[in-house]
Amino acid sequence: MRAIIEPPPEPGAPLAPLWKRLSWFAGLAVSGAAATAIVAYALRALLR
Amino acid sequence: MHFDALLLSRLQFAFTIAFHIIFPSFSIGLASFLAVLEGLWLATKNEAFKTLYLFWVKVFAISFGMGVVTGVVMSYEIGTNWSVYSAAAAPVIGPLLAFEVLTAFFLEASFLGVMLFGWRKVGPRLHFAASALVAFGTLVSAFWIISANSWMQHPTGYVRLASGALRATDWGQVIFSPTFPLRLTHMVLAAYLTTSLVVGAASAWRLLKDPDEEESCLALKMAIGMFAIVAPLQLLAGDASGKQVLQVQPAKLAAIEAFWDTKAGQAFHIAAWPDRAAAANRWELSIPKLGSLITAGDANATITGLKAFAPQDRPPVAVVFWAFRVMVGLGVAMIGLGFWGGFLAWRGNLPQARWFLRAAVAMGPAGFVAVVSGWIVAEVGRQPYVIYGVLRTADAVSPVSQGEVSVSLICFMAVYALIFSVGVLYILRLIDEGPRPAATAPPPTAMRPPGYALAAAPEEPAAPPRGPASRDSSGDAP
Do B273 and B239 sit in the same domain of this protein? Predict the structure, then answer.
């Protein structure tokens, strides 16, 4: 079964192009912030 | 003791914050430890740092999640149980907590995803940036929370309107109130100490089982290096913080030291039984003049005693007095452990020093106990005020009934007992397994449904082929 927490790339494994890695970086960051915002607004709506 | 809504609300907040503070005080230090491990792995390519990172990041993920869950509760508690406080202080405290969400929470939430799920996707350097940003986010979170708490301990830069509500007049003075820098330093050092003691205990536990485990030996040396330096620094920061308390909260300092009378050359009470009703210590074990020397830096200094304050303005004494001694006693033990470990590391026989390893394991929870004790000193010591000198705790409570608070307190106790037990047991199981290099990790198991009772069990041997031939080979088939 694949590990949930991702380990680093194998030594010597080729890295994806920089634009692709930056896209993942920005995409995961925005997804994390969006998930926090959704939970925050859901709780706010629940309490109103 | 009468359990009215006020006392129950105070117990509820004390209960929830005591559970909560355990997790941030651990995750602040652990996030920095992870960033250091990853940075060292990138710089040296020593695989032991990577193994340690992959091991401790699991513990971090669980404790971070539990910290968020136990922390969110308190925001709502302020509204439900302390609505008078909220109404009066929200214009000042509200923005500080909002800044924490907007800066720290979002920073941590954004880059925790990269940290946990994106190493192969973003590559090593961007992943290190994410780890460093999460570590920075935990410190930013501490900054805002300690800023809010410091303002409540010694409010500055505000006015009180005729309606009783408070308004900020100078945000610089609100955020950077006079006690804030030292209190932030004290808290961050406490977090680093707590984490280094846990890392040290986990590594020592593994070395007791296997003295040749390279990763645990390395982690133990790093932990010793941290608490050998940070524990003495914490003593200095705590001493400076105590001297500040003498200036801004003399009643709290008098309670910490169980000083009842105002006099020159106060004795230091090593142990005492403070009696609030009698306004005296029933018995005490003291060193003459040392109290004035420690608290004011002058053995003949005059220190204000509790009798200088009206009885209704005095904090509870015994709990503050003893919580302070637990904190300081553990701090001294941490300094001793640091020197002992440093000496053994210098001698080069750390993994074989079984008495030290046992002591390091025993000291694992000491940071948590010291942090909770320190918070008891800070929070009980500023009673009877919730905002020192401005709003009394008794006036800050919501108009809620005793029954309502009792029910919610019982619910909290039940839910927290479940979450805390499961979380801590899982972390202890992880620690017991220890860091495992990829080469010695067990092969991946087959896809099994989550929660399957044998999910972690090794693969079964291949079943023999069905059919007449297999039956024949067994010899005793029916």
Answer: yes
Same domain? For B311 and B245 the reply is: yes
Q: Find how far residue B368's CA is from the centre of its chain.
A: 6
- In Å, how far from its chain's centre is CA B402? 30
Using CA of residue B110, residue B115, residue B120, residue B125, what is the dihedral sign? positive
The number of distinct structural domains making up chain B is: 2
Most confident among A3-12, B63-72, B373-382, B399-408 (mean pLDDT): B373-382
- B120 touches A8 (CB < 8 A): yes
Answer yes or no: are the C-beta atoms of B242 and B295 closer than 8 Å. yes
Q: Which helix (H) or strand (E) element contains residue B391? A: strand B391-392
| Residues of A in Cβ contact (< 8 Å) with B106 | 33, 36
Structural contact between residues B265 and B299, judged by C-beta atoms closer than 8 angstroms = yes
* pLDDT of the residue at A37: 83
B425 shares a domain with B331: no
Q: Which long-range contacts (CB under 8 A, 24 or more apart) does B218-222 make?
A: B218/B48, B218/B49, B218/B52, B219/B52, B219/B435, B220/B341, B220/B350, B220/B360, B221/B345, B221/B350, B222/B33, B222/B36, B222/B196
Residue B25: pLDDT above 80? yes
pLDDT at B176 over 50: yes
Give B61's contacts in chain A (Cβ within 8 Å).
5
Let me know whether B389 and B426 are in one domain: no
For B382, half-sphere exposure in the C-beta direction (CA atoms, 13 angstrom radius) is 23
| Pairwise CA distance, residues B432 & B58, whole Å | 13
What's the residue count for chain B? Answer: 478
For residue B281, which of B262, B257, B249, B263 has the smallest C-alpha distance? B257
d(CA B396, CA B82) in angstroms, rounded, equals 6
- If asked whether residues B265 and B378 sit together in one domain, one would say yes
- Cβ distance A25 to B114 less than 8 Å, yes or no, reads yes
Measured between beta carbons, which residues in chain A are less than 8 angstroms from residue B117?
4-6, 28
Query: Do A36 and B106 lie within an 8 Å CB cutoff?
Result: yes
By residue range, what is the domain housing residue B123?
11-178+400-438+451-460
Is the model's pTM score more than 0.90? Answer: no
**Which one of B106, B119, B123 has the shortest CB-CB distance to A33?**
B106
Are residues B64 and B157 both part of a single domain? Answer: yes
Contact B235, B325 (CB under 8 A): no
CB contact under 8 A, B124 and A9: yes
Q: Do B113 and A31 touch (CB under 8 A)?
A: yes
Which ipTM value was assigned to this complex? Answer: 0.75
- Give the nearest chain A residue to B79 (CA atoms): A47
Task: Please check whether residues B83 and B124 belong to one and the same domain.
Answer: yes
HEC string for B87-110: HHHHHHHHHHHHHHHHHHHHHHHH
